[in-house]
Amino acid sequence: MSLRGRQNSTNLLVETASFLIVRLGASYFALPAAGVRGVLTQEEAGHEEAVTAAETVYQQVDLAQRLSVVADLSGLEMRTVLYSIGYSQGAIRVEQVVGLTDVEQKDWFPLPPHFQCDERNWFGGMMLYQDQLVLILNSFWVLGESSGVVSVPIGQAKPLIAVTPTAVGESC
Q1: Alpha carbon 92 to chain centroid distance?
Q2: What is the pLDDT of residues 8-62, one digit of tens each?
Q3: What is the pTM of this model?
Q4: Cβ 142 vs Cβ 83: under 8 Å
Q5: pLDDT tens digits, residue range 48-100?
């Protein structure tokens, strides 16, 4: 501040977001860090269907299967990310936790226009991290939430209309 009470600063307000960067197979993904409640080793997480930490039960989320990514979840760098948004919690197994980063809004980008189907709900955009293309995951999709739609295991789903759903990597 100057003596006359005015700001003489050239600092601009820069919007940033924090992300936890994880790897599954050869692919890198970013989870908004606000939902991360902890990162556990395989020993700490155990082999149960659910992980209990700080009196909260986190059900397993098979992100590799949801993304159709081949991942080796038996390696020494495998971690379980405890993730929570709203009333939903999940234990997400990843091959590696790469790091935590703060990214300025100008440094993440929307999906290119050729992404036109369900993947628009899966990913919130993309960015570069240490020369790797990273897809920013939609937290609600990761935990199985989307606008009041309840996820149903594939074998139990009954289609409302005759539409063939697309899978990751297929054309729309």
Answers
A1: 9
A2: 545 556 689 999 999 999 999 999 999 999 999 999 998 888 999 988 999 999 9
A3: 0.76
A4: yes
A5: 889 999 889 999 999 999 999 999 999 999 999 999 998 999 999 999 999 99
Q: Would you give the DSSP letter of residue 95?
A: S
Q: Output the CA torsion 143→149→151→156 (10° steps).
A: 180
Contact 65, 73 (CB under 8 A): no
At 36, which amino acid appears? V
Return the closest-CA partner of residue 71 out of 130, 38, 27: 27
Domains and CATH numbers, the chain: 6-35+63-81+93-167 (2.30.30.40)
Six token digits for residue 15? 């919007």
